[in-house]
User: Fold these one by one.
Assistant:
Number 1:
Amino acid sequence: MDKALLKKALAIAAIVLLVIIVSISYFFTLYRISNTDEIINKIFSTLTPIILGAVFAYIMKSTCNFFERKITRWVQKGKAKDRDKVRKFASITAIILTYITWLAVITGLLWIAIPQIIQSISKFANDLIIKIPEYTNLIIEWEQKFLKDNEMLRPFFDKAIEWFISWSETDLIPWLQGLVSRIIPMILGVLTSVFDIVIGLVISFFILLGRRTLAKKSILFLHCIFK
């Protein structure tokens, strides 16, 4: 056999074997360890600020680059200055302006959007509560019209309609009536993760501060893995 083909075959066999080992280990861990969910939740809760920081940095990167270019041109205009000092000043100032800009935009959007969302959901729930009896009557009329001579299917539809009426009166309508009162605690629940958001913002600051170095190192790392 050709040596090149042999190397490719061995590489494929090694990859397949590795996938099988990892799969077996995963399922063994999943079925043998009783607190797997707890471990996974702890890992994700620990990584949440880092993930948020990376997401924040990625979203704010373009804005930060824009401010940095403008500040660099403004500082260097007409004067010969130390490039390193200009770069550091422009980078830190651009990050601060980026945070101020994005916080102002997000605050304004939330100020406008949250009341509208609550009002829309409330209107939807109230309209649906009013429409449920109409929908039920339409289903009953359809059944009486199209299944009046079908003795085989009509009992099943009768039971289904009875179940729907009972379920809508006992479960669906009360749930819709309390929907708005549950939305506000959900929004507050999102806001209770302020600690993760603050840590994410701190991490995003350092990511933005060293974004060019991080990008270069990431490219080198990827080139080391993928030729």
Number 2:
Amino acid sequence: MKFIDYLFKNIQFNPNQGYAMFYYHKGEVFTKCLGKLKDKDSDEITLDSNFRLASVSKQFIAFAIVKLVNEGKLAYQQNIKSIFTDLPDYFENITVKHLLNHTSGIFDYENMEHDENIQISDGDILTFLRNTSETYFTPGSKYQYSNTGYILLGLIISQISKRELNEYIETEIFKPAKMYNSKVNLEGITNISNRAYGHIIEKDSYIVKDQYWCSATIGDGGLYSSINDLKCWCKYLNSSKEFQDMKIPNLVGNYDEYGLGIRIVKVNNNEFYFHSGSTIGTNTLLLFSVDLDLCFLFLTNINGFNTTRIKELLVEFLMNEEC
């Protein structure tokens, strides 16, 4: 396949890198799996291996919020102070929509004081935010990507639905999308079958490094899924009424790539939608387009791999192909 040849010509894959890849374009299909789930004695990675999705998880959080809005249980312009009344007063000026499209200006939790040996939970983010007194900028005036915002959205899902976030997502999203092996990970509790553990390269050695102090949060990146389940997700998402809202870009300043939990790119007047993810030991990419009859999914269990570069190469390839 032309794009796959182009991809492997322009991307340097680590020979020890484990990954699962799926590419579909206009009836042609390419799949490839390489490496082990954990160590040399573990099972091989397959299209059913479950990787941590990192920020690709944000699509599912956004979908749940849009679903609650469509059900009349929440509103895009609802301020966050009305949901969590013990947050500082400045949350009266921050809406659900601000959180969804990264225009809230709330502080990054990654900068909070922490113990490297103790993992924080989503609930700890509320404690962190209670002790803040301002935002980086006036809410709604600027785009700035925020993991904190999506953790807060996950907490809102639980608060509004009166259900645990993992139970809500697995029941209300994974099940109807036929993503039967996907999980919301509660580290140390959830049993994730065929789990692909993250790895880092340290002193030329390829070692398991799957967790650190902020790896246990859910809303910003704690979902696990496989290539086969994500294929079901792309189909389900595209046919859903929620997606109609998710793919409307924010129009703050000159930045209009981000909608609600999804990025929008135009290639010769055709739209495709994607999100990438990166965390310790794991990098991910989900990309699809009905206009271009295209789907690309990539999950790898190694740190420092630039999945956004794959998206850039695909855009270059499509621009030339569609001319």
Number 3:
Amino acid sequence: MIKLTKFLLACDIPLNLENYKVHLATGREYPPLTAFFEGKFKEWQADQSRKNFECDMVIGLIEYEKQQWLFAGVFRILGCERQPNGRYTYATELLPGQDELIGRIIVQHKRTGRASYLWGTEDGGEFDVVAIREKTLSVKDFPGYHAVTLPYSVLKIIISQNVPSWRGALTSIKGVYVIADTKTGLLYVGSAYGDSGIWQRWSNYIQTGHSDNEALKALLEREGPEYVQNFQFTLLEFADTYASDEYILKRESHWKQALQTRAFGNNQN
């Protein structure tokens, strides 16, 4: 294996190995991988709760799998401004020559503590290149109907980018789904029937956040529109477009009863 810094230098990336940090990017409310898929990792990283980037350069690595990290770029630090809310916004720029590397390099690193901002060493430290993807990492292709569970942020990317494998699969089925509020655990069971399919139904949630469901609408009015980021979409049951609407509605009622979403969730009927 080769050290990440050695690999980057071999690719003519002008690193300053005397004054840099490695940022191990993680997070749950707005995961850095989601920001990367949206093309917003630079902005995501620039927003900090403390002055974490008092250095010349930052190597951004996004948590990918256990002990593996996705290379998100080397950024030069240009300045820092404290915001009225007490947070800090860094002005950064990507070093040149990285277009073919960002989102393709997989780095192995065993995190030994909670620290996310590590001072880099001249020898490159324990950051080894273990794989180079053929293409830049993007939203994964449709995994099969029995494996559909998506946070709102990823579903938004799939819908807005009109990802072909997802659109083709979800347009061709009717079905029953559940929206989980990951902050409270409350569930909402819904269904898609008629000619619209799951794709169109879920597209409505991306457009409005609630798709005219009264309970979800009231929740977003109470907590604010950004609360939709807590929603997670899972396909419970599916059928082809020849299934009757009456059948889908009966299956929806079954799942509401099974999951008790009328008594303890966000279903009102």
